[in-house]
Structure formats: structure tokens, C-alpha cells
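*** Query protein ***
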Amino acid sequence: MKRIYLSVALLLLSACNSTQNDLSSTLNGGGYLFRPEKLFTDAKEAVSDGYWDRPANLEGNHVIVVDTQLQQAKYYIGGRQVGLSDISSGKAGHGTPRGVFSIIDKDVDHVSASYGSIVDSAGNVLVESYTVGQPIPKGGHYEGSKMNFGMQITRSGIWMHEGIVTSAPESHGCIRLPRKMAKIFFENTPIGTKVIIK
């Protein structure tokens, strides 16, 4: 029994020691105890995990690293990790693009021009999941999905924004964050911030 406890203690110690807060180790794939193929939470169970710990005097370049395998976004300032958020990235057929991007626009009350629902004049939902270009039932009109605390990453319409987060790929390509973390990221991110998606 002592051997089991000792093994668990060593594993936890190893995890703590291997979690590095510098940007270079994350970009090189280091700093992880494991990299599972998928991390899933029940789709009905939204998560709000994340943290923000930025020292008052910390300065330097801002970088957001999005890991689509771990379904996490890490925030760095001056090479130091100051934030972490669970995410939901693009689902099959709507994958989130990978590469190096930058924040090209911000909109605190952004609304999707591509995805939403069709409602009637009384506000009743006629079509819950609607993609622009599909037929609109008579008496209905398009209402875009809310993408609050939106930060635009690509000209093709990929944004980082508030949304339902299950720690599984769920979106049409955008990167969803829980409300708390979306607000913090939005408030601390200047236009031009580098976004690395892997």
C-alpha cells in the first residue's frame, strides 16, 4: 500500500515539476504530463474552468496559445503564463485552422453573420441551428448567434468568443471560452496580439 501511495506522490510531483510556465516549452510541446487523444465532458455540462494571475508590473508581448487537442487556451505576457482557459474549438467538418495568426478586430457584442437561428415576430424559434444561405421559413427572420467578447482571428470569420464550453470540439470553427475567461481575455488583449493555434 505504501508503494502505491509513493508512486502516486511521485507522479503528482512529476506533474508539478513538468508544468512549466514559459512560452518556449509550451510551443515545443513540453510541459504536459500527458496528451490524451480527446478530453470530453458531457455535452450538456458546460465548464467554466480557468484562471488569471497577472502580476501588476508584468509587461511584454501578449501571446495566446490554443491547443485543439487538449481543448485549452494559454495566455502569456512577456513569455510568462498568466492565464488558462478550457475551450471548445471546431467540430468535425468545421475544424479550427492551425497556424500563427493575430487579433485583427475586437467587438464586445459581436453577432455571427453566418450561424444563428430563425425566429418569428413573437420571438419563437422556428429553426434552432441555421446556416446563412439555407431557406428561411415564411414569417421568420435570421438572428445571429451571440459571440460576446469577440476577438477576430481570421478574415474568413474565425473568432475567439464567449460560448458554451464542454472541453470538446463543438463550434463551427471559432474558439469558445467560458464567459468569465472570455471577458478576462478580451479585456487584456490588444489588437495585434499573436494567436498560435496547434
Q: What stands out?
A: DSSP finds three helices and eleven strands in the chain. The longest strand covers residues 105-119.
